[in-house]
Amino acid sequence: MAQDRIDLLRRAALTLCAGLIAAATLPLAASAQENTPQDPRLHTPGQLTVATGDPVYPPWMMNNDPASGEGFENALVYALAEEMGFDRDQVVWLGETFEQSIAPGAKAYDFAIQQISVTEARSQIVSFSQVYYQPQKAVIALPGTAAETATSFEDLRGLRWGAVIGTTDNDYLVNVLGITDAAIYNEQVDVFQALQAGQIDATLAALPTALFVTAVQVPDASIVALLPPDENDNGHGLLFEFGNPLVTWVDEALSALIERGTVDDLVATWLVADPDLPVIAE
């Protein structure tokens, strides 16, 4: 009986040791997979899950198809994915509204890209990559409105404005121009429809968006002026769930693309060069 107890204790000790060894190797295995497509920190290891708008608009993404890779932002994502070691078919796209993207809380993806400006206020509830693009702001208006002849902030304050909720376009109206009665809409397309219906006089948009809007979506409208940058708007960055540990890895890959000139090449390919337009500075 004594020998049976000794054998039982030996087996228990061996089992415990094996368990401790296995547990000790788990962190090592997970660490070895970090910064690879099997990184356990990914929302779904084996794929890069990216959120964007639904729908999406040129020139940021063409033909309402993020997976095509045609457009500035989706081409950037595929270049970034390749830099991080992902194959093209390992990039998975999710659609969500802009308001959902900038809201606090858990995210069902690794990062979002949707011309999301990096601001101090947003950085309190979500995390950002470094800035990948800083566009100018453009004033879009139809012919026959006072926006066409505006030459000062005071002139702009007399217009009926429209903007999308939660955007830095609306922040610009409030914080830079001092406009607090702009009509607020849920989506950009709603703003353009209001412009066409004569419900508002003008709206703001990043210059690449404004160029497409005035060429295709609202061809009767035009860009009547460019505005100086908002010191609180640092430019567009990739958005992550707050505290996401993937930010460092993604930033390293993004830095490599910037240093090699890949991002500049994509800007030259998809985003039209700034036209010669008047600037209203004060």
Tell me briefly what this model is.
The protein has 282 residues and is an alpha/beta fold.
By secondary-structure content and strand pairing, the structural class works out as: alpha/beta
- What letter string, H or E per element, gives the SSE order? HEHEHEEEHEHEHEHEEHH
Number of strands: 10
The level of helicity is 25-40%
Q: Return Rg in Å.
A: 25 Å
The gross shape turns out to be elongated
Biggest sheet architecture: 5 strands, mixed
Q: Beta-sheet strand percentage? A: 15-25%
Q: Find the CATH topology of the largest domain.
A: D-Maltodextrin-Binding Protein, domain 2
CATH homologous superfamily (4th level) name of the largest domain:
Periplasmic binding protein-like II
Overall CATH architecture of the largest domain: 3-Layer(aba) Sandwich
Uncertain spans, ≥5 residues at pLDDT below 50? none
As for the number of domains, it is 2
Give the spatial strand order of the biggest sheet: 7-6-8-5-9
Tell me, what is the CATH class of the largest domain? Alpha Beta
Mean pLDDT: 89
- Distance between the ends: 95 Å
> Can you count the helices?
9
